[in-house]
Amino acid sequence: MGRRRRGRPIHGWLVLDKPKGKTSAQAVAAVRRITGAAKAGHGGTLDPMATGVLPIALGEATKTVAYVIGGAKTYRFTIRWGEARDTDDADGAVIETAEARPDEAAIRAALPDFIGEIEQVPPTYAAIKVNGERAYALAREGCAVALDARPVTIESLTLVEMPDADHAAFEMRCGKGTYVRALARDLARRLGTVGHLAALRRVAVGRFTDGDAISLDNLEALMHSGAPLDLLRPVETALDDIPALAVTEPQASRMRQGQPITTLDGFSGVVRVTHRRQLVALAEVRGDKAHPVRVFNF
Known about the structure:
- α1 (24-35) packs parallel to α6 (216-224).
- The protein is of the alpha+beta class.
- It has 7 helices and 18 strands.
């Protein structure tokens, strides 16, 4: 008999405003401790130096994490010109300096080259695996790390302000796998200088925005007050873009048992199966059959 998971059966999405200095894993652990949830995960890693939207999946919501990670993300960030760092962000050591500083016209002229599908080489200090080892672990050991360029999509990239000659602030909306640190590095090089990511805040992940986010301190205060978790989003929030297939109780029962059902609704591909507006499963429709892929247990 398997060991039962300890904790409360809490199901849904919590939009956390991750504080600077914590890893995403540490933030998830803190949310789980504060709420007492039996199971938790996150919808897209943020580096320790970054702040902002970190969607936390609780309970059955962990089965929908992939749909959040794959969604568009919006960042606000600052590049510091004139200093390259080994991690491509402010947490690293300075490895190169340059006197050149780009002006506003040069920056605006360069931005279109970084919009659309582009090839991007990830930072050396990344979680990508190289021969079974994390790239950042190899880099910390002094090993030479060569990462291949990979395609990423940047939907928009705008200059927001230039508070001084050394800094420029931007906003970017991008797809899965885009490294803001790498963009800062590459944009600086394109502009004839060097640079690194000085500050980073994620303001949106799909439908989750920083306007809905709660800090760890406020979450702890809320839980200590005994207030209900009204800020918890439904599990299906992450699945809003997926067509819904309403089924009968007998069909829902078959789905929960992992069995396919017959459907004549004309759907194809992945659907979210519901019964009386409650999420039952994620299923893949092939022909006239809907095959369960993920079953939800509330």
